Amino acid sequence: IADEPTTALDVTTQAEIIDLIRRLQKDKGMAVMFITHDMGVVAEIADEVLVMYHGKVMESGPVDQIFHAPQDDYTRMLIGSVLKLEQKAEIRLKRPPLPDKVLPVLEVSGLSMQFAGVKAVDNVSLFLKPGETLGVVGESGSGKTTVGRCLLRVYNPTAGSAIYRRADGTTVDLVTANRAQLKECRREIRMIFQDPISSLNPRMTVAQVIAEPMLVNGIATGKELDDRVAHLMEQVGLNPDWRERYPHAFSGGQRQRIGVARAISLNPRIIVADEATSALDVSIRAQVLDLMMELQDRLGLSYIFISHDIGVIRYMCDRVAVMYRGKLVEMGPAEQVCTNPTHSYTQALLSAIPRPDPRNRSIHQRMRYTG
Questions:
Q1: Which residues face 273 on adjacent strands?
Q2: In whole angstroms, what is the distance from residue 297 CA to residue 211 CA?
Q3: pLDDT tens over the chain, length 371 residues
Q4: CB–CB of 107/163 below 8 Å?
Q5: 274 burial class (0-12, 13-18, 19+ CB within 10 angstroms)?
Q6: In degrees, to the nearest 5, what angle opens at C-alpha 79 toward C-alphas 74 and 85?
Q7: Rounded to an integer, what distance in angstroms lies between the CA atom of residue 259 and that of residue 191?
Q8: Comma-separated ranges of CATH 3.40.50.300 domains in the chain
Q9: Would you tell me the crossing angle of helices 73-84 and 282-299 to the nearest 10 degrees?
Q10: Cα dist. 190→38, 183, 246, 264 in Å?
């Protein structure tokens, strides 16, 4: 019985685990019950499929039948959500192209971070335009999360610069900024975390979680604060009447919406989203991504979207930076990088993505990068 054994793994590690389970199954003649919310993985590994919703079996049958002739609306919705994430988001298709000649809101040059002799980030340079979403993708240990934490000075980089251009045109180097400058910049550069359970204080109500940044920064108190919390909850698609509930009373997708509300509470200009949807099932993942893009259009946000899921990156991002072992190995427009990559590591990443079609099992045509 394998209960979500590949959840939150990067695609290359996930493919290796699937490969291992199939090999052990064949060698030992085992039966496997594989529990997952990832329909791509289902298409990759299953012979028979049982679809559940709210404790009930909605549909069951051979994997080919489930994917190519589903009988239940819920099954069709799950498969449709996977296929949706293989395309550009409709919101992005309707947007005018970003202007070429515009000063970046953030410009990173030669950023490096070393831990006990290990270069977690090695001479990384990138930029972020106003209103743009830059995806940073790579497998576990590639350094992508460390880049995000360096930008917010959770870690103090060992070298490089990160020039943040404020709304008034003044610039601050986030790498060398003093405490007062950092406090100001952290109001304008916020973070959404990977795990919506551990990132929310279980002892605080939702209202307290969302209100805390505004209280700490002296933005609002009393009725004004209550009104702001209610408005923020409405903005992220949550009922304001739920604000006195605690995080455990919400689903994973709702908890991540609470995290988004907290992130936008200070009217930021940049949000660093670190694996913000990796713990969510595919239908909820698409909803949260659509919400983030709607907020981007409404509030003029720029995103650095860190993920190991190159399918989500393609759906969400304008440009993509691919990292491997601390180095930036490829960067370009999302469509170009995801359909015609130039670096062999990016090609290996793409080849490891499970295809949502059991007739096209990618495990037999996967590339391995050994660089």
A1: 192, 305
A2: 23
A3: 999 998 778 888 888 899 899 999 999 999 999 999 888 889 889 999 999 999 999 999 999 999 999 999 999 988 887 766 666 666 667 777 777 788 999 999 999 999 988 899 999 999 999 999 999 999 888 999 999 999 999 999 999 999 999 999 999 999 999 999 999 999 999 999 887 778 888 999 999 999 999 999 988 889 999 999 999 999 999 999 999 999 999 988 899 999 999 999 999 999 999 988 887 877 788 889 999 999 999 999 999 999 988 888 888 899 999 999 999 999 999 889 988 899 999 988 888 877 788 887 755 466 677 66
A4: yes
A5: buried
A6: 125
A7: 9
A8: 98-340
A9: 50
A10: 29, 11, 22, 8
DSSP conformation letters of 295-341: HHHHHT-EEEEEES-HHHHHHH-SEEEEEETTEEEEEEEHHHHHHS-
CA distance 326 to 164: 22
List the CATH code of the domain at 98-340: 3.40.50.300
pTM exceeding 0.85: yes
| Location of structure tokens 């793994």 | 9
